[in-house]
Write a structure and sequence with these properties.
The structure holds two protein chains of two kinds. Chain A is built from one helix and nine strands; from the N terminus they run βββββββββα. Chain A is mainly β. Chain A has one domain. In chain A, the strands form two sheets. Chain A has a five-stranded mixed barrel with strand order 5-6-7-9-8. The relative contact order of chain A is 0.21. Chain B is globular and about 55 Å long. In chain B, β2, α2 (62-65) and β3 (72-74) form a beta-alpha-beta unit. Chain B has a nine-stranded mixed beta sheet with strand order 3-2-4-7-1-8-12-11-10. In chain B, 35% of the residues lie in helices and 20% in strands. By secondary structure, chain B is an alpha/beta fold. The A-B interface holds A 10-11, 14, 25, 32, 34-36, 39, 42, 58-65, 67-73, 88, 90-92, 94, 96-102, 104, 110, 114-115, 126, 130, 132 and B 112-113, 115, 117-118, 122, 124-134, 137, 140-142, 144-145, 148-149, 189-194, 245-250. β7 (99-105) of chain A pairs antiparallel with β9 (247-248) of chain B, so a sheet runs across the interface.
């Protein structure tokens, strides 16, 4: 993956530029892993840390209405409105032994989501300019590849 | 040895939408109501604490109330603004420095969900840009996991909202004054799964003022006081799961509500079983359910049985919860919301609840507010 990604990263330091990208978290001097990587003074002593690409669904919900600003996805642009909004799924994904990260969930239906479901990191188009990160069900990815 | 502190006056400006009054004007209205209730005049008040989240500074109210030169401290503590104002005024009297203090909270928010700026919370811009920085999502994510782990059904969420609107219908200060049936609640548009439109409170307007007095002053005035047994405000402990968190620790952490609740019960020297009526933060239906357990009133999962049996109804037999319809029926003007709960408890303890009066002369009343970025305030009041 990665070859078909055309947009800019929504944040240049959010994920790595590896062929198989990783979210970038931070490792505190105590050894604890945090997400996102702190910035400014809070970053002192914190090592950037590539987070696992696989995790388990910890909780989830749907976003059924157009968020107000600073949301920049479909429906937020000039001349756009709630009818241009595309509802999406999001949740928390537990990266074993590391941290639980909040993420969009893609390539899944609400009714398919369940606690502990195996998910995999991916990059998805977000708006006309940017890509963002997401997690998607592992099984589906593997069946597609097969 | 700190002084006993009593609430001797309680005033409210009806919650909802009042286009003709600014948030601060609603605050002034509530202060005048509270003064009248206590049989006092504005110059009698010795110090004041108050604020709003979105409707300006409270100390400007002296322009309308009178330039008496009293110290007036603005409180800007997000969802705990009311709770913090109450705690500060309680401490002012408990310390022995003052005999009469005012706590006031008011607000006026635009329609629709609150929008927050990532930078204000020390978070990266992408978190807001990508549509993940919404309070409604947090509550949905928290209850979704809780439902899976503790066997809470969707209908139980609906029952909480149904009760809220039923109680709101008989509460003069509530915003939503019509009952909504369970089927309508369950079939309403989904906002954030599993929460439908009727399961969320809305930003609103309103104001509450409370007048606090020392025991000596209360007796001198012959006022009808309700004793403050405990006030506790707690911010989040390590590894907790709160609103606006792109990442959560894998270590299971504590909860600010549990900490505030335990501190308040300890201070008051009573337990959950002693409470006759409770106002619990119900930003949405799931919050009321989770807060029943976090405040120690039941075990995780028991809410399913409680709601099915109506045990939190006004005449439900166990523990009436959110007797004025809570945030669901009153809306949430952030600065006023926590004080509304205390106002409602004062009314209940003074037997002034009218159609919503809890039966059996309630003696101990409990209120709990929770908000961003992970803080909680609990107050326990007693009718002596």
């Amino acid at each position: 993956m990665g070859a078909d990604i055309m947009g800019e990263k929504i944040d240049p330091n959010l994920w790595s530029d590896d062929p198989e990208p990783h979210l970038i978290g931070g490792r505190l001097p105590s050894g604890e892993i945090v997400f996102p990587m702190p910035v400014g003074d809070a970053a002192k002593g914190v090592e950037p840390y590539k987070l696992a690409r696989r995790g388990k669904l910890w909780s989830w919900t749907s976003q059924g209405f157009l968020p107000k600003e600073p949301y920049e996805g479909p429906g937020s642009g000039p001349g756009e409105g709630p009818s241009d909004f595309q509802p999406f799924l999001l949740g928390y994904v537990e990266l074993p032994g590391e941290v639980i990260v909040e993420s969009r969930i893609v390539d899944a239906r609400l009714e398919d989501l369940h606690l502990g479901m195996d998910l995999e990191f991916c990059i998805v188009p977000f708006n006309a300019r940017y890509d963002t990160f997401a997690f998607r069900p592992v099984a589906q990815t593997e069946s597609k590849a097969a | 040895m700190s002084e006993n502190v009593y609430i001797i006056g309680a005033g409210i400006h009806p919650f909802g939408r009042t286009d003709s009054r600014s948030g601060r004007e609603q605050g002034v209205y509530a202060v005048r109501e509270a003064l009248q209730d206590a049989g006092l005049e504005w110059p009698d008040i010795e110090c004041a604490y108050g604020g709003s989240a979105a409707a300006g500074s409270a100390d400007i109210m002296v322009n309308e109330l009178g330039l008496t030169s009293l110290p007036f401290t603005n409180v800007a503590n997000g969802c705990a603004t009311g709770g913090s104002a109450l705690a500060a005024s309680q401490q002012a009297i408990a310390s022995g420095m003052y005999d009469l203090a005012l706590a006031v909270g008011f607000d006026k928010h635009p329609r629709g969900a609150f929008n927050a700026k990532p930078a204000d919370y020390g978070l990266p811009d992408w978190y807001g840009q990508t549509g993940m920085m919404l309070t409604t999502q947090f509550f949905a994510l928290k209850i979704q996991r809780y439902m899976q782990l503790h066997g809470i059904s969707r209908i139980t969420l609906g029952r909480v909202a149904e009760k809220a609107f039923r109680n709101g219908a008989i509460t003069p200060h509530a915003w939503r004054r019509s009952p909504v049936d369970l089927e309508t609640i369950m079939n309403a548009p989904m906002i954030n799964d599993p929460l439908t439109k009727y399961m969320f409170c809305s930003p609103a307007e309103g104001a509450v003022a409370l007048i606090l007095a020392s025991e000596k002053k209360m007796r001198e005035l012959g006022a009808d006081g309700v004793k403050i047994r405990a006030v506790a405000v707690k911010t989040r402990p390590p590894n907790s799961f709160e609103v606006f968190q792109p990442g959560i620790s894998i270590a299971e952490g504590g909860k600010p509500t549990v900490l505030a609740s335990k501190a308040a019960f300890e201070k008051a020297g009573v337990g959950p079983e002693d409470i006759s009526v409770a106002q619990l933060q119900d930003t949405e239906s799931g919050a009321e359910i989770m807060h029943m357990a976090e405040n120690g009133f039941c075990k995780d999962g028991e809410q399913e049985e409680w709601l099915a049996n109506g045990w939190t109804e006004i005449n439900g037999g166990k523990l009436p919860v959110n007797t004025d319809g809570g945030c669901l029926a009153c809306g949430e003007p952030i600065g006023a919301s926590g004080l509304r709960q205390v106002y409602e408890n004062v009314q209940q303890l003074r037997q002034r609840g009218g159609a919503r009066q809890v039966p059996g002369k309630p003696r101990l009343a409990y209120s709990h507010v929770y908000g961003a970025p992970g803080l909680s305030a609990v107050a326990i009041l007693e009718r002596e």
